[in-house]
Amino acid sequence: MIQKIDKKAVQEALRTAYERCKNETGGKNADYIPYLADVPSNLFGIAACLPDGDVVAVGDVDYKFGIESVSKVPTAILAMNQYSGQEVLDKIGADATGLPFNSIMAILLENDHPSTPLVNAGAISACSMVKPVGDSDGKWKAIVSFIADLAGSEVEVIDELYKSETATNFNNKSIAWLLKNYNRIYDDPDMALDIYTRQCSIGVTAKQLATMSATIANSGVNPVTKKEVFKPELTPKIASMMATVGFYEHTGDWLFTTGLPAKTGVGGGIMGVVPGVMGVAAFAPPLDEAGNSVKAQKALAFIAGHLNLNLFGTTRCVMAEKEPVQA
Ligand SMILES: NC(=O)CC[C@H](N)C(=O)O
After folding, report:
1. Interhelix angle for 234-245 vs 72-82, to 10°?
2. Burial zone of 316 (CB within 10 Å; 0-12 exposed, 13-18 middle, 19+ buried)
3. C-alpha 270 to ligand 1 mean position (Å)
4. Predicted model pTM
5. Which of 52, 112, 261, 295 sits a CA distance of 20 to 30 A from 179?
6. How far is 173 from 60, CA to CA, in rounded Å?
7. Where does substrate bind (predicted)?
8. What DSSP line would sit under 153-215, residue for residue?
C-alpha cells in the first residue's frame, strides 16, 4: 500500500513530536568528553528535509553541536565512494557488534575485524582508508568537503571540542593501535585517529543533519543544491549499515520500534534516513546508557510511527507531488 504525505503532514508531525517530548527529562549529557558535559541540556530541535529541498524544523535547529558519531556515516560513504562498497566490506565489515561504540572486546570477538565503519574501530579504519592516503591535510579536506556537500552548507570544527576530545581519547588510541596490530589500519594510525577525532568535533545544526540525511535518502543527490555527492548505489549500503548498528547495543530495540535506519552521536544528534522519501534529524544532549539521545530518539520514534516511515511495514510512505502552479 502507498501512503502519500505532504509537507504539512511532516510539519505537523514534527510539531507534535516536539510538544510531546520537550518535557522529557531522562538521560544525561556525555561527560567523558569534558566539552559535552557543559552543553545546555535543555536544547532540543527537530528537522526534516524533503526531496524538493524544503526544510521543515522546530526548536533549537540552528544550534551548532558536536556531530560526534554521526560523522561515521559520511566517512563510510566517502570510503565506499572512493573504493567500493565491497572493498569497505572486505577491509572493515558491516556486522553489528552488539557492544558499546568504543568496545575493544568487539575487535577481539570479531577475530581482529573492525566490524563496521559505524563504531569507533571501523570509523578509525575508514579514516585510514580515505584518499589521499599518507596526506593528513588532503584527507581532512576530502572529509570536511564531503560533509559540507551532504549538508549543502559549510561546516567547521568546534575547536574547544576538538581539544577536549584529543586530550581524553586514550581508549580510541588503544583501538587505533590494536587495529594496526591486526593490519586493519590502512594509513598511519595516529593520523587516522586524529582525523577521526577532528571529524567527531565538527559542529552541525539539526537542519544540516536533516539535509545530510536527505541527500542519502535521495540517492546521493543533495535536494537543496542538486549536487551529485556520491554514487546512487551506496544509499542502500549505508542505510543497511545504519539499520544494523546505528544505536549500538540498543539497535535491535530501536529498529523493532521504528523500522528507521538512523545514526546517533554522543553530542545528542540523531540522523534518520527514509530512502527515497526524506531525511529527518533531531538533537537533544542528554543520552541513555548506550550514548543515544533520549529526547531525540523519542521524537524520531514518534515521527516514524506517525508518518509510517517504517521500512519493514507494508505501507510505503511517499511524498505527494506538489500541486502544479496554475498558469
Ligand atoms: N558515540 C559517539 O558519538 C562517540 C564519538 C566520540 N568522539 C568517541 O569516539 O568516543
Report:
1. 140
2. middle
3. 13
4. 0.97
5. 261
6. 34
7. 69, 120, 165, 172, 196, 248, 266
8. S--EE-HHHHHHHHTT-HHHHHHHHHHHHTT---S-HHHHHHHHHHHHTEEE-HHHHHHHHHH
Query: Does 130 appear as a known binding residue?
Result: no
The residue with cell 563504531 is: 119
| pLDDT tens track for 277-311 | 999 999 999 999 999 999 999 999 999 999 999 99
Nearest to 178 by CA among 192, 168, 166: 192
Residue with the nearest Cα to atom 6 of ligand 1? 68
- The protein residue with its alpha carbon nearest to ligand 1, atom 4, reads 69
The backbone torsions φ and ψ at residue 278, rounded to the nearest 5 degrees and listed phi first, read -170, 170
ipTM entry? 0.97
Residues composing the chain: 327
- Ligand 1 contact, 69 CB (< 6 A): yes
> 120: annotated binding-site residue?
yes
Q: Per DSSP, what are the bridge partners of residue 202?
A: 157
